[in-house]
Amino acid sequence: MIVGSGMEFWEATRSGPISQILPRCLAQLGGATSWADCLTALRHLMTPFHALRGPQIAHYEESFGSRIGVPFAISFSAARVGLFGLLKVLGIGPTDEVLLQVPTHIVVANAIRYTGAQPVYVDCRLEDYNIDLKQAEQRITPKTRAIILQHTFGIPVDLDRAQDLAKRYGLILIEDCVHALGARYKGRPVGSFGRAAIFSTEETKTISSTMGGMVVTDDRILAQQIRDFEEACPWPRRSLVARYLLKLVAYHFLTHPYVYRWPRLAYEFLGRRNPLPTPTSREERQGLRPKDYATRFSNGQSAVLLGQLQRLEQNVAHRAFVAAAYSARLAQCGLKLPKVAEGVYLSWVRFPVWVSDRDKALRRVSPHCVSGTWFTSVLEEAESPSCGGYVSGLCPRAEMVSRHLINLPTHPRVREADVARITEALSSNV
Predict the structure, then answer these.
(1) Which CATH number goes with the domain that contains 64?
(2) Taking a C-beta distance cutoff of 8 angstroms, is the pair 156, 190 a contact?
(3) Which among 137, 135, 151, 90 is positioned nearest to 117, based on CA atoms?
(4) Residues 56, 308: Cα–Cα separation, whole Å
(5) Are 83 and 197 found together in one domain?
(6) Cα–Cα distance for residue pair 418/44, rounded to 1 Å
(7) Can you tell me the distance from the alpha carbon of 428 to that of 135, in angstroms, rounded to the nearest whole number?
(8) How many domains does the chain have?
């Protein structure tokens, strides 16, 4: 059993009748929530008014800012909304360009495009799937106003070089920390280096409220401008908040490793139809802006996240041990793993592995887990990369990543025995 800092971060591998009748299968999501989170969600569902508005929002924002080491944190219904609002109050709009790495998600490109500005796509490094800063410099023009740094999979970007680049060219540096809550660069939390940063608590992230986002900054004036934008946004529909809270509870139980394979089979049999709210709308996948795009964050979801923030260090430490176990086992069989620089501490929202035949690798591990395929496109979930203005061939390394990368679960439900089974299956694919 693996332990660290005097605390056990692995559950004991149990044997017995239940493991023979219901073999374990890990989901990519659902592992960050607890039974206490479910009780909190259900309690707010029973008082619909308090599910929407209440004091937990301010408490959550204050607690989140403290975790990042910045004085200001403003919540939104999604990180993409926070990014859009941030760009707007920074005065970025038509005729402006924003440097953005691929692969990323279509909603990040959309947030730029909704302001009227143009995303300028920059290729990734194959070592860590983060932005190629050398190429970013080559793509700067007189129209370039900002650079967005995505800490991919929770692997921090080289922030010293990025800050130097931004300073030399007068660019606004924005950190995209949607994968990276809990990661640190040279002892300092990511999200505290740029002019501002965005975080996500969507269902696949380090902590989860089904949907949710946060903008953080240490700039008082900028924070007030973002707050003004947030206060101008409407509240979400009560029915939607209720569905998010119900989804959190449902996913907590349906994604349990001894249960998950059965709802997953039903989901596949029914044509991947999900009656619960999905993170990305059809309009967003097409590069269009939905009518109810910019909304505020709810009190009930804030209450759920306050509990998860208290467990954040244990959550991230567990992910670090899982990633170390994956690395130790997979390095011996020649699979390409990410290279991590010295002086960084990763949050490992998932563990990426480069494989020669992705479909074969997915089939090999499917009895043990549903492996993620971030990224299946340079703009994940887009109906076509062209929906975000991406031109084929512009970033060849990112296009290779979208064909060869799988990513493995690292959440708190992953056990040492799960790692052994998954890595053995992947090793047989080499």
Answers:
(1) 3.40.640.10
(2) yes
(3) 90
(4) 13
(5) yes
(6) 34
(7) 37
(8) 2
Alpha-carbon distance of 365 to 221, in angstroms, equals 50
Pick the closest to residue 72 from 164, 171, 196 (CA basis).
Answer: 196
Range of the domain at 144: 35-232
Q: Report the amino acid identity of residue 121.
A: Y
**Would you say residue 373 lies in a domain?**
yes
CB 376 within 8 A of CB 384: no
Phi–psi pair at 426, nearest 5 degrees: -70, -40
Of the candidates 201, 203, 181, which has an alpha carbon nearest to the alpha carbon of residue 191? 181
Look at residue 284 and tell me if it is in a domain.
Answer: no
pLDDT digits (tens, 9 = 90+) for 1-28: 333 333 333 343 344 445 455 689 999 8
Q: Identify whether the C-beta of residue 281 lies closer than 8 Å to the C-beta of residue 45.
A: no
Residue 250 sits in the same domain as residue 337: yes
For residue 216, which of 188, 234, 194, 231 has the smallest C-alpha distance? 194
Taking a C-beta distance cutoff of 8 angstroms, is the pair 213, 81 a contact?
A: yes
Residue with tokens 């591990």: 365
207 shares a domain with 83: yes
DSSP 235-272: PPPHHHHHHHHHHHHHHHHHT-TTTTHHHHHHHHHTTS
Whether 227 is covered by a domain: the verdict is yes
Q: 245-291 pLDDT, tens per residue?
A: 999 999 999 999 999 988 888 877 777 777 788 999 999 999 999 99
Query: Residue 334 is part of a domain; what is its CATH number?
Result: 3.90.1150.10
Is residue 293 a part of any domain in this protein?
no
243 vs 387: CA distance, rounded Å: 29
d(CA 259, CA 248): 16
Q: Which segments within 47-103 are labelled E, that is strand? A: 72-76, 97-101
Residue 201: name the closest of 191, 213, 215, 190 by CA: 213
Instruction: With beta carbons less than 8 A apart as the criterion, state whether 116 and 70 touch.
Output: no
Q: Which two tokens stand for residue 118?
A: 């143009």
What is the rounded CA–CA span in Å between residue 309 and residue 77?
A: 18
pLDDT tens for 354-404 read 999 999 999 999 999 988 878 999 999 999 999 999 999 999 999 999 999
Residues 127 and 41 in one domain: yes
Do 113 and 204 belong to one domain? yes
Could you give the C-alpha distances from 211 to 75, 110, 203, 267, in angstroms and in order? 11, 17, 6, 21
Q: Amino acid identity of 318? A: H
Ramachandran area for residue 338 (φ above 0: left; ψ -120 to 50: alpha; else beta): beta
